[in-house]
Specification:
Length: 146
């Protein structure tokens, strides 16, 4: 199950992503927002991220205007490793090396075609499980309690 969230600026791109997830029979839960009225992205980052940390969803996708605000908010939540990506290489290697569990996209940055490529590679790339990467992720986790 994939957790989705957006603010008003990410709503249209989230709808494109939803269409793609429907077409590829990928299960998701949309934690809002549900229209283009102005709203605050941290509220939706929190809802979608808590679905991931709570185990209801394995991965999440958050969309705001830049993807940056969503990633800042998401990375404040214990257990979340959110990556704001607008290129294919980063979306792939943030799964392989960082075991990122949230992909953040900018609805005012990337078009739907690129966004869907980023979503697909993010959702389909496993964590490498390499010892070096595990050690570094443990160090990220230790920063959460400082
Ligand atoms: C909303 O105007 C915009 O600031 C927001 O979507 C996001 O880009 C923040 O990082």
């Amino acid at each position: 199950m994939i957790a989705l969230g957006s603010d008003h600026a990410g709503y249209a791109l989230k709808q494109d992503i939803i269409k793609h997830l429907d077409e590829t029979h990928t299960e998701y839960k949309d934690y809002g927002t549900f229209d283009e009225s102005s709203c605050d992205y941290p509220d939706f980052a929190q809802k979608a991220c808590e679905a991931v940390t709570g185990g209801e969803c394995e991965l999440g996708i958050l969309v705001c205007g830049t993807g940056v605000g969503m990633s800042m908010a998401a990375n404040k939540i214990k257990g979340i490793r959110a990556a704001c990506c607008s290129d294919y290489f980063s979306a792939k290697f943030t799964r392989e090396h960082n075991d990122a569990n949230i992909l953040c996209l900018g609805g005012r940055v990337v078009g739907a075609g690129l966004a869907i490529e980023l979503v697909d590679v993010f959702l389909n790339t496993p964590f490498s499980n390499g010892a070096n990467h595990l050690r570094r992720i443990e160090k990220i986790k230790s920063l959460e309690s400082k």
